Amino acid sequence: MPLKHLLLSNPSQTRYYSSSRGRNTPNLVSAFRTHGFLIKSGKFTDSYTWNNILADYCRWSELDDAQKLFDEIPQRDTVSWNSLIVCNVLRGNYEHACILFGKMLQKRLFCNQYTLKSVLKSVSCTFQLVIGNQLHSFVVKIGLDRNVFSGTALVDMYAKCGSLSDAHLAFKSIAEPNTMEREGLKPDESSFASLLPLLNDRSCCKVMVQVHATIIKFGSVVDAIVYNAAITAYSECQSIIDSEKVFEDMVGIRDLVTWNSMLVAYADHGFMGDAVKLFMRMQDIGIAFDIYTFTSVISACFECGQISQGKILHALVVKCGMEGTPSVSNALIGMYIRPNDVCNVEDAVKCFNSIEFRDAISWNSILTGFSQNGFSEDALKFFCHMQAVSVRIDHYAFSATLRSCSDLAVLLFDQQVHGLVLKSGFSSNDFVSSSLIYLYSKCGIIVDAKKSFDESCKDSSMTWNSIIFGYAQHGLGEIALDLFHKMQQLGVKADHITFVGLLSTCSHSGLVKEGSKILKSIQPTYGIPLRIEHYACGVDLFGRAGNLTEAKYLTESMPFEPNSMVWMTLLGACRIYGNMDLASHIAKSLLESEPTVHSTYVILSNMYAGFGYWDGRAMIQREMRDRRVTKVPGWSWIEVNKKLHSFNAEDISHPQSGEIYDSLATLMEEVEIVHYECIEVGRHEILFGLYDWIMDSLFQPSFLLEHYCSEAEQTFFMAYLTRLRFVMRVPFES
């Protein structure tokens, strides 16, 4: 409501009505009376009087009232402008405070340290670092960068905008920073609570110890808030032991935040068992839980695979009435849908349906869970449902959807999602561009994968890793290595995944010498500890080249116990080169450690059959029956005329399976002819000639398929030719 005055003949008799934020303070009463007298008398006094009235209005009245009074002041000076700017800042009107500052500069008024302090606070509250940099230049230009007020405001602005290096430089430029020690002041809980969140890196550990010593020194003035912040600070400085010490020393002053801080510290460092034990300790003591307690301990349960305990927690969540809380339900969804042996998608969906107000994390958790657990069709249907109910699609949702698209290789739908990515402006995002590269690489279109890479930001190793893996899948090792060298020249830091891709590239391309050199240089040259994935790629590198002795030596020289991935890689090499003795030894270890994995039985059975060891093959098959191990059938699918057709071995479920098998028989006869011709004139020339003829005859004028082949023949020919295109990318064995 606008301010109204009832002006009487004498200022002392002035009555007033005000919407002055519900408080008729003596200072504001005096300001009203003086203001009314000035209006009635028509006298224009000096600026000092007007500024005093404005200061009271800014402090106690509404912003509109202060703005009206400011407009009435006949001669506005720096103090007038400062008062109105401060008034806007105090009421959170930061944008208008910056506008007023701009108008003040246009009128060529002098800006002092108090002006800059208020404007810099507006910038820090809106996190506009670019404008903050411009203001810093202006401060230096007018010579106030060494002033304590403006310098402190610069430090605060840079710190809140996340630029600690600039904050430190601004602090160093202050002529005489007034430290608490110099001023004879004792730090209180606010001082420590503001400082501790800044110590969030391993390099700050020594500083954290010094701050902790100061906290102990002033222990009488410090409460639980500071010690809770100390637990978190030690955790972020990678010193979980010190976090535990602080927690255990807080006898008698622990609150719920203390317990939650320790829970989060355990979860962040992977001590999931300790987190669960701490939660049980809370329950025994009778500590009341909140949403942060549940989210931390549920996350700990699914990280360490304790789904049974997670279900107990779920029951406790329902009992406490928090099942519909988004953050708690999101944690439960993550627990149930996490890719592992006991993934329970149905329970995850039930948790999702129980949420009344779903956030982006709720939708993305279900979508990502479908994608990561192999439910690719469900993921795409869920993505379409998200669009239908107008859920905002972010880069996480696009990334998960594109991964599912790559599993199904439905190119038309893939391109539609890509178009939606471009329309939404996420094509340069690292997650999305990486998924696009992976998608087109897996679909066999390496050219489009390279285009997606060229359109990405290339600032992180994520997109580089994806394109290196893409070229590895296509056997283009030289190009992948050239990309790695370019990545190094641009200063992009490689990670452990980069070297997995490089080793895979060398393995698929037969670049044994280059791959061996990379494997030996990962730790000494790039400072990246060797992981089991690197050793597995090295085993594959030597195994594919037939150097089984080197592959076996690498397996035995690993600094940790080889897992099934390493042994399966070596077993596959034994199958290729017919080393039955080594294969039997490896298979024996695998069957003892993972007796339910079918691939070990299948490889060993095929090797026995290849060598004519029929008794051994019969023994393996009998063992599979006794252990109730069944071979998981492989599936192939292809899209023809906007329809998706899927097949597995000896499948007759397709409605046109009869025509498909007839076409297969005809093609197999042609393959036999080609096989004998390959023996006479060379496999490379015949196969590449056949490939070129097929490409020219069928893929270029695509209407030939539509006009001269039935739908069943189209389906099979497209599947066959797609497979042939993949074969042509793989080097032929001699």
Concise account of the structure shown:
The protein is mostly helical and 734 residues long. Helices cover 70% and strands 2% of the residues.
Instruction: Give me the CATH superfamily of the domain at 4-177.
Output: Tetratricopeptide repeat domain
Structural class assignment = mainly alpha
Biggest β-sheet description: 2 strands, antiparallel
Oligomer: single chain
What's the Cα radius of gyration?
36 Å
Q: What is the number of helices?
A: 40
As for the CATH topology of the domain at 4-177, it is Serine Threonine Protein Phosphatase 5, Tetratricopeptide repeat
Unreliable runs, pLDDT <50, ≥5 residues? 1-24, 679-734
- Mean of the pLDDT scores? 76
Query: How helix-rich are the residues, as a percent range?
Result: 55-70%
Distance between the termini: 91 Å
Shape: elongated
Beta-strand share of residues: under 5%
Per DSSP E runs of 2 or more residues, the count of β-strands stands at 4
CATH class of the domain at 4-177: Mainly Alpha
Question: Numbering strands along the chain, what is their spatial order in the largest sheet?
Answer: 1-2
CATH architecture of the domain at 4-177: Alpha Horseshoe
